[in-house]
Amino acid sequence: MKHWLLALSTITLLGMSEAQESTLYRGFAELKQEQNLLPGQWVWEPGEAWYDNLIPGTLRLSGVLEQSRQIQAAAPNPLTAYVGKKVQFFWEGQWREATVVSADKNLFLYEGRYLVGLPGPIGYPDPSGFSGLTGPKITFRYQGSGPARLSYLTRAVSWNLRYTLENGELVGWASLNNSLDRAVQLGRTELVAGVVPVVEGRGMPLGRTPGAAPMMADLAMAEFVGEAGGTYRYKLPGEITLEPGSLELPFLRSPVAPVYLWRYQGGFSSAQELTFARGYRFQAPENLAAGTVSLREGSTFVGQASMPDTAKGGEVRLILGPDPEGRALRRLEPRAQNTYRVITTVQNPKTYPIEVELGESFPQPFTLEIQGAERTPEGYRLKFTLAPGQSRTLEYTVTFPQRP
Q: Which domain of life is it from (predicted)?
């Protein structure tokens, strides 16, 4: 009877169960771990999955004077020792046999068919492929000893933000993402909102996409703790166990006063009708981190829009797309050569007020005669509110000089 050595599909991450401090960004995180170092050197074995998600150039070992680092990648794939041989795999309640065709391509021959990967744990006939198998490791050499801190950027952990705007209330949920196959314990955690670029490193995989369904947690809201270099910082309460997948935490709940909006911003049009995009506008009740906003009118979902990072008191505009009723009638009256009198009428057919934003840009050069609107180098812009059933007419004269 053959003896089979079972190899689990997951890889244990050495020393990565806890980060004393963590700062999460969009697409990556900075993690910090306290260490107590002996003199001379220290070997860090992060595990293959964690190592693959490190952002190059971001490792820091503070508290000692670093002299060098020796980086060693993981040992070869254990399947290499079994190319052309049979291995077993467990699937649908029983063990089955497949032949290893290529270790590099993870290719197997099973019942006359070639498979990329196997659907279950693999059983090997002997341990020969595991001799000397180690994960990646980094050897730090330094002067000094004692308390130190290891910090680094990783794409294995990140966050994003989603809002819902309904009945005058803006509710935000922060989604903390873990793309690994094991839990990560986060200590004091901050979320950073803003544009924080990192340079991609060659040959550094970005990890797997989280597969677990989001979980909802009943925790206190995130606390705004300040601005740093053009970013917003928020603190989460307590320690967090971040399981594989995504963990959703309450981020913000604040009343706002949304205004329904019609908007036309475009070039000069000689058409008989202008069409407006619909959306909502409101003032930021506090410093708001960027995110996707799902909008509801009553119980009806009316669309999603992206909200940029917005300072407290700043104006948020969420444009959703065309409104079938969002039309303005237009009439052009020629006055002289290349001169037109333009008459535009907007009417509100709805049972609630509408704020209208109207702006046009003209081909250069041009001459514009207009009243009741703001002149711009490109043309004009105008903002006004229409009560239900109310209409407003805008008239102007524009001249385009004769061109040869």
A: Bacteria
- Structure confidence by residue, pLDDT tens digits, 113-167: 998 888 888 888 877 766 655 668 889 999 999 999 999 999 999 999 999 999 9
Residues 313 and 297: beta-carbon distance below 8 Å? no
CB atoms within 10 A of CB 329: 14
Q: What is the pTM of this model?
A: 0.70
Burial class (CB in 10 A: 0-12, 13-18, 19+), 317: middle
Q: State the DSSP string of 189-212.
A: EEEEES----PPPTT----PPP-S
- Distance CA(37)–CA(190), nearest Å, equals 27
How many C-beta atoms surround the C-beta of residue 16 within 10 A? 22
Helices (H), 9-152: 48-52
CATH architecture of the domain 259-399 equals: Sandwich (2.60)
Query: How open is the CA angle 163-157-34, to the nearest 5 degrees?
Result: 125
| Strand order from edge to edge, sheet including 391-399 | 367-370, 391-399, 339-347, 315-336, 273-283, 259-267, 354-361, 379-386, 374-375
3-state secondary structure at position 48: helix
- Helix, strand, or coil (residue 232): strand
Structural domain spans, the chain: 78-123, 259-399
**Cβ(169)–Cβ(2) below 8 Å:** no
Pull the structure tokens for residue 89. 């795999």
Residue 340: DSSP 8-state: E
Nearest to 67 by CA among 92, 109, 39: 39
